[in-house]
Design a protein that fits this description.
Layout lengths: L17 E5 L23 E2 L2 E2 L4 E2 L9 E19 L10 E7 L7 H5 L4 E8 L5 E5 L5 E10 L3 E2 L1 E8 L11 E2 L8 E5 L23 E2 L9 E19 L10 E7 L13 E8 L5 E5 L6 E9 L3 E2 L1 E8 L2
Antiparallel strand pairs: 1-5, 2-3, 4-10, 5-8, 5-9, 5-11, 6-7, 6-9, 12-21, 13-15, 14-20, 15-18, 15-19, 15-21, 16-17, 16-19
């Protein structure tokens, strides 16, 4: 996994992404492009559309042009990399693809998106069958939609759009907001261990449906404890913390604590001054714990320590952005 693909997938269906339009989906539906998880395949499974594919597949074009699909990002932001995955498509993959992006405020219709100012972020590039193709993106602008173009037709199993969330928090001015929410622009910047699942899951939207949709570490045998650091969506004062061990019945931490830091620029270092937000507190398995925090010090980063190891379904840090 590269540094780029470790960033959240801004287009993921479970993060609110949607394939709002496609030129064609005769053989396999367009929404499969942004499903969570790797594409699956079982040979010899035929339906009304032919062999069943866990991906997007268009008809064989008999006229000039190419096929395309427009994806609304569930979390608008700066795109750092794109993965065009043709897994399982061997005799029916597109030989070339390109990706464009645009930024449109509000809730545009498909017709309005077609008329938007699109910027090419991945030029027309060759593809192989049954392979994941990773492309680095250098455009630093904020985008809300992407358009995958395939030439001339064929199948793509997954489209991943990795980047940094750039949310518009002006909507919540004067209100309490989840400063640790990925969709608001927070990001996990450090972690002791991610043996079983990614720490980014802990700040993802929604509730975890199972253990794999949270963060879970290996079993520690060294007497230490596991931790992660979250860069908040905006500097602010955290008022309520929620530590959710939902689905973690036999592998929840025994206890946890929270510490904060105010780091004006960059990420916390070894000399960072951390101060206590929540003292080490006992946790229960499969439980949403909510704690009212004291103090008025603003923080830019929060460190969650779990003792000694285990998992956390979600971490929510509700507070007031610093004006």
């Amino acid at each position: 996994m590269s540094d780029v693909t470790r960033l959240p997938d801004l287009a993921l269906r479970s993060y609110g992404g949607s394939v709002v339009a496609a030129s064609d989906e005769s053989f396999a539906e367009r929404q499969s492009l942004i499903r969570p998880g790797a594409s699956a395949f079982r040979p010899g499974t035929f339906g009304a559309r032919g062999q069943v594919y866990d991906g997007w597949e268009t008809r064989r074009r008999r006229e000039p042009g190419h096929d395309w699909a427009i994806v609304r990002l569930g979390m608008p932001g700066v795109i750092r990399g794109v993965v065009v995955d043709t897994s399982w498509f061997i005799g029916n993959y597109p030989p070339f693809a390109s990706v464009e992006a645009c930024a449109v405020d509000g809730y545009p219709s498909v017709a309005e998106l077609q008329e938007a100012a699109w910027a090419e972020i991945v030029p027309r590039s060759p593809l192989d069958g049954d392979a994941a193709h990773e492309f680095t993106v250098g455009d630093g602008r904020r985008f809300t939609h992407v358009r995958l173009n395939i030439y001339p037709d064929g199948g793509v199993s997954r489209l991943r759009v990795h980047g940094e969330v750039v949310a518009d928090l002006a909507l919540y001015e004067g209100m309490t907001v989840d400063l640790a929410a990925l969709e608001n622009g927070a990001l996990v910047t450090g972690c002791s261990d991610e043996f079983y699942s990614s720490p980014v899951n802990v700040i993802a939207p929604g509730l975890p449906r199972h253990q794999a949709e949270g963060w879970e570490t290996a079993r520690r045998r060294d007497g230490g404890n596991d931790w992660l650091v979250v860069r908040l969506a905006a500097p602010g004062v955290v008022r309520v913390a929620e530590l959710d061990t939902t689905n973690l019945v036999f592998n929840a931490p025994g206890s946890a604590s929270l510490a904060g830091a105010d780091v004006p620029v960059g990420a916390p270092g070894e000399d960072t001054e951390w101060f206590e937000l929540l003292a080490r507190t006992r946790l229960q398995p499969d439980t949403r714990h909510r704690f009212r925090l004291q103090g008025d010090r603003a923080v830019t980063h929060v460190r969650l320590d779990i003792y000694p190891d285990g998992g956390m379904g979600r971490l929510r840090l509700h507070g007031t952005p610093r004006g």
